[in-house]
Structure prediction request, 294 residues.
Amino acid sequence: MYNQITANKRKTVVLIAIFLIVIWGIGALFGIYYGSPWQGLAPAIIISLVLTLISYYSGDKIALAASGAKETSLAENPYLWRMVENLCIAQGMAMPRVYTINDTAINAFATGRDPKHASIAVTAGALQKLENEELEGVLAHELSHVKNYDILVMTIVIVLVGTIALLSDWFVRMNFWGGGSDRENRSGNAVFLVIGLVLMIVAPIVAELIKLAVSRQREYLADASGALLTRYPEGLANALAKIASDHQATKGASQATAHLYFSNPFLGSRSKIANFFSTHPPIEDRIARLKGMA
Prediction:
């Protein structure tokens, strides 16, 4: 388990480093063509950061409202409440606000910028169809997301994705409409325009793929952390197996909130291409990793 956690953290750091290299490369192009990389880099970072911080501080409320989650209490749902409370005590973290979602699909998600501002939501399907150890595994996975500050990590990644998208678009627009020092004296403008067009198309795709890769690594990390918390990887693996055979999409989920959920909330194809563009690793891979933990 500890080896799995260390490996997942290392892979996340590598992916974010690749992000930074891509941004540095785009900044270098600005520097070569316009004389100063900060001409486009600085405003792109500022705009992406502002928009993402707004989402960071209010995204939990939006996600809970979009999913139709309703807050519950110890009196209303003692079974779920006590299970979350016991896991929080074992994890040494603050008790989050607990929500239920009126959906027959098996799923759950946690949100909040840190353990002191966290919420966890569980579908009615998860409460009805999962055994105690299976539900405990799912909750431990979601609480691990909060404990590992995954919302913060994904916020940083989203800032980087937004920065790359803005820079790619600006590079083409500035190249096409003019700008840059002594542009009229430059040769090879057509070459730079081609580079800019390729950048505009390829860079956002690459950035999105890296974002999905980071999201998948955080899921593996939460699986390992959750199994470490419960000391019973089999419970989490069995919950995933039930989800794989349940064949129900989570109704309140959207592309914007899909990465928050315990499992992919959509029923899409199981092909390798579909998995490549998913926010979650294939369920079969997650189960295999959990069964291999000791």
